[in-house]
Write a structure and sequence with these properties.
By secondary structure, the chain is of the alpha+beta class. The chain has helices at 14-29, 64-77, 84-90, 95-101, 147-156, 168-171, 213-223, 265-276; strands spanning 3-8, 33-38, 51-56, 79-81, 110-112, 124-129, 139-142, 159-163, 173-179, 182-190, 205-208, 233-241, 244-251. The longest helix has 16 residues, at 14-29.
Length: 278
């Protein structure tokens, strides 16, 4: 019997369960021995699985090097999804500068190396760690008011500086979900009144979304820049800049796929995982 381990975090949340349980159930429906496991649980025999699917490892950004060492060790003994080169590349947001260099429409991004001098911060900007998730360490404000904040962030790691995207307050952010080779579903995430972070834990609200042709084209162009390797699951987050869709982030490691909003999605993801086994 095929065995699949679905990697998550030790801390269990309702959002994580909504991502893990439907997938494990869909795999079981296909005759797979599937189970969830914490990625940092040293008692787990990862080499006993035919495939390890990274799913809700949402704490990895706090221990990126440890997480990448784990991913490398798993990749050495079984099939890791998404592939190790993709995981490594996507774990640091410098990839945004690479997308821009490849002419993919992207929110303008300046990467400031850890320990570097605080750059000029004209106008209203957003600053964030280059390794982060869920809005952790993200600040928005007048550049002149954020210089001390940026200095503190640089003391801990690389930092991204971006112009504030004013359309987020009006249009929110859209997330396009790709499972296997198919665009599965999409959601729109809108911040709470007066806010700029769209994540639900910051008060953001979700609605279903039908992607435009332009949005799909930008998302396809962004995914084409990822390292070689089959993408079983991917999420592309887009915002509007001058009325056109641009990439805010690619989520290729442990994206929340909003499975609860698409009843057929768990089955699609299960099929894509099994197809990766060949």
């Amino acid at each position: 019997m095929t065995r699949v381990l679905v990697a998550g975090a030790r801390a269990r949340t309702g959002r994580a369960d909504a991502e893990m349980r439907p997938l494990i159930a869909a795999l079981a429906d296909r005759g797979v021995d599937a189970a969830g496991a914490a990625w940092d649980d040293e008692t787990v025999a990862w080499d006993g699985a035919d495939l390890v699917a990274i799913r809700t490892t949402w704490d990895y950004t706090e221990r990126r090097e440890t997480f990448l060492a784990w991913a490398q060790a798993v990749d050495a003994v079984t099939r890791l999804v998404n592939p190790l080169p993709v995981v490594t590349w996507n774990s640091h947001k410098r990839y945004l500068t690479e997308l821009a260099a490849a002419n993919v429409p992207t929110v303008p991004t300046t990467l400031v190396p850890a320990g570097g001098a605080v750059p000029d911060l004209p106008g209203t900007v957003v600053v964030k760690p280059a390794v982060s998730a869920g809005g952790r360490g993200t600040h928005r404000g007048r550049g002149a008011d954020l210089r001390d904040t940026v200095a503190d962030l640089l003391a801990a790691g690389d930092v991204l500086v971006q112009p504030a995207v004013e359309s987020i307050g009006r249009d929110g952010e859209v997330s396009l979900i790709r499972l296997g080779g198919t665009w599965s579903h999409a959601v729109r995430k809108v911040p709470a009144a007066g806010g700029f972070l769209v994540h639900e834990k910051h008060g953001g609200a979700l609605t279903d979304h039908t992607p435009t042709g332009a949005e799909v084209a930008v998302a396809e162009a962004a995914l084409a820049c990822a390292p070689a390797g089959e993408l079983v699951a991917a999420r592309v987050d887009l915002v509007r800049l001058d009325g056109e869709p641009v990439v805010m982030e690619l989520e290729l490691i442990e994206p929340e796929l909003f499975l609860r909003r698409a009843p057929a999605a768990p089955a699609r993801l299960a099929d894509a995982l099994l197809a990766a086994l060949g």
